[in-house]
Amino acid sequence: MLNQIVFEYPLAFLIIIPFVICQIYCKAKTDALFFPTIKFLKRATKKSMLLENILKVLIVLLLVTSLASPIIKDEVSIKNDKGYEISLIVDASGSMAQNNKFGIVKEIVSDFLDKRVHDKIGLSIFADFAYVAVPLTYDKKSIKRLLNRLQVGVAGSRRTALYEALFLSSNLFKNSHAKKKIAILLTDGMNNVDNIPLDVAIKTIKKYGIKVYTVGIGGVGDFDPNVLKKIAQESGGEFFQANSKQRLKEIYDTIDKLEKSKIKANKYVKKRYLFAYPLGLALFFTIILLFRRNKELA
Description:
Elements (H helix, E strand, L loop, with lengths): L3 E4 L8 H10 L5 H4 L11 H22 L2 E9 L6 E7 L9 H15 L4 E7 L3 E8 L2 H10 L12 H9 L10 E7 L10 H10 L3 E7 L7 H11 L2 E5 L2 H14 L7 E8 L2 H22 L1
Parallel strand pairs: 3-4, 3-6, 6-7, 7-8
Antiparallel strand pairs: 1-2, 2-9, 4-5
């Protein structure tokens, strides 16, 4: 927990017990025994004695608190580079505007991003052409901000450059040293752009050792299941079909579980010591107590 105040030596508070016992049972002898001729000390009022007692208690409590060493602990998690690297490839063609499919996909992908704490994520968009919207990064917030702003038509609206998107996204892993490289390709259409042949795209994903999960959304005839199955099988991934928001969410949840990052982030605890504050207050109240006593003796 961030900004949590704890004590390094909490047993120091046990000192309060003998202090309380002494206050009750170790009463000082009457002033007359030690100072039989100084009668003006008796002028102190009950109110003044009460204030002095309060000051003494505060001083002791503050000194004990300082001795217990209060600190603020900040637990810092530092991610390393052994997590998964995941490329999200999303269809943004005109057909994705039907029934708010693109809006639903953005919502589910955003939820998926929240679950991948220790992974580097990249985002590619395709329609008439494909482009990398966000390279592989740990900065999920930036991806989510951009994802929220993306709309159907941002890469054209009449065509589906599926193979080009797969090929382009695969090159994100060109210099990757990650042990697990994943791509999730989502589309509701069929490739109708001839820039990159399917075999070239598959050869590239196999070259970089990328496992591709393909997701076809919509009904029969909207996408080519044979192509999506081939991409998944050739790369060691899996093909899914979704015809509802709930099914699509289940698919992303399944992929999340299948490729769950088992990496443990390195954790460091940063301590900020606060003992100077109660110690300073104790010194301040001690000065006030001494000043009052000297004033009464004057």
